[in-house]
Each structure stands twice: as structure tokens, then as C-alpha cells.
Amino acid sequence: MAARTLAIGDIHGCDVALKTVLEKLSPDRDDTLVVLGDVVDRGPGSRQAVDQLLELGRHCQVILILGNHEEMMLNAVSGGEWTRGWLRYGGQATLDSYGGELANVPVEHWEFLKSGRDYWLTERNLFVHANLEPGVPLEKQVPDWLRWTHLTGIEAPLLPGRRIFCGHTPQTLGIPLVLPGWVCIDTFACGTGWLTGLDVETNEYVQAQQSGVHRTGLLSRE
């Protein structure tokens, strides 16, 4: 089987949904899995979700894109401006998954979160968490746009023939959003939607809910 590039949308502590999606995608050692950020917060199993991704990273390439929730968590542990705010925006659920104490977070979990990238660029695709500031070169994009700015629906394509894959903007109906040059796969896993795992070449996707229910689909045409 040819190597695949797979992308997973915002997990938000939905560890059972993640386990189900990974089982259905069955990544192997030649595949690359791009996690589009927001692994943690809101759902019940942030610790378990990180454990799964660490284990998977021993068998294939796993690339983490830094989401705004990872940013808040890392900022909080360093005593930054999100020290209190993080708990209000889903961090309490993450803390609970670690037994209620940040001291219980394993070193390898911190290392994984700190390994998060602003973006990942390939020959044909760009992976970001949230959005891009129009007209600004990729290397000069700032966190407010990369991790915090929601899609408006009128974003311009990056380059002809290249797509941008993102999360962050929740698709509450559970269906990936496809725009010219853009695909958003935050399909509201921590709400009433689904967690999406996508093969970016075939456009086939697998979705699961925290209950373990799953389904498959194909991206709509742009």
C-alpha cells in the first residue's frame, strides 16, 4: 500500500472517538498522521488521547499542529495569562483526566504538546489549526491567526492545486466544510458531532463519536 497522509480534526479529549477512528484508519509505518490541534480540553479523556498518539508515534510519523487549547495549557503551566482562564475553557476536564494535578502530567506528554508546530507544509498541502492572515507570508503568520481566528467562509486559496486543511471552526452538523482550496475537519467531536479522520489524497474519511459509533464518508466537491 502506498504511504498515506492522514489528518485528524479537533479531538478535545474524546479518547474513545479517537481510538475508533485510528482503528478504522489503521495507520502503518509508512503513513503520516497530522493532528490538527486541540487534542486536549472539554472531553473526558485528554490524557488517554495523548497516550494514544504517543503510542501511535512509535509506529508511524505523527505531526502535531499546535491548537489554541494546547497553547492555553502550556501557558497555564508556566504561570502565564491563561493560568485561570484555561480551566474555564475546558482545561478543568483535562486536569481531571490527570487526577486533578498538573504535577501528574508525564514529562513525555509535555514534550509532545511542546512539539506542536505552527503549520506543516507539503508539496501539495498545508495543515494549520485555524486560519491564515490574508496577504501575509506563511513564515510571518502570527498565533492569533494560526490558532485563534475562525473561518469566515470567504478565505482565499493558498495556491492553485494546493489545499489547506484546518480545524478550529466547529462544524456543528458533523460534516466537513469544503471551500475552494480549504477543508475544515473540526466536526464538533466534543459536542453533538463527530471526530473526523481524513485521507487527504482520496478524500475518504472516517468519523466516530465518543460512544464508539462510527461512519464513513467522502468529501463533497469544492
Write a structural description.
- With 222 residues, the chain is of the alpha/beta class.
- It has one domain (13-218): Purple Acid Phosphatase, chain A, domain 2, CATH 3.60.21.
- The chain is built from 6 helices and 11 strands.
- It has helices at 15-25, 46-56, 68-77, 85-97, 107-114, 143-148; strands at residues 5-8, 32-35, 61-64, 120-121, 125-127, 163-166, 177-179, 182-184, 195-199, 204-208, 214-218.
- The strands form 2 sheets. A 6-stranded mixed sheet has the order 3-2-1-9-10-11, with helices on one face.
- A hairpin with a 5-residue loop joins strand 10 and strand 11.
Give structural attributes.
alpha/beta, Purple Acid Phosphatase, chain A, domain 2, six-stranded mixed β-sheet, five-stranded mixed β-sheet, 11 strands, 27% helix
CATH architecture: 4-Layer Sandwich
Average pLDDT: 96
Just give the CATH class: Alpha Beta
**Beta strand count:** 11
Spatial arrangement of strands, main beta sheet: 3-2-1-9-10-11
Q: How many helices in DSSP terms?
A: 6
Shape category: globular
Distance between the termini: 27 Å
Radius of gyration: 16 Å
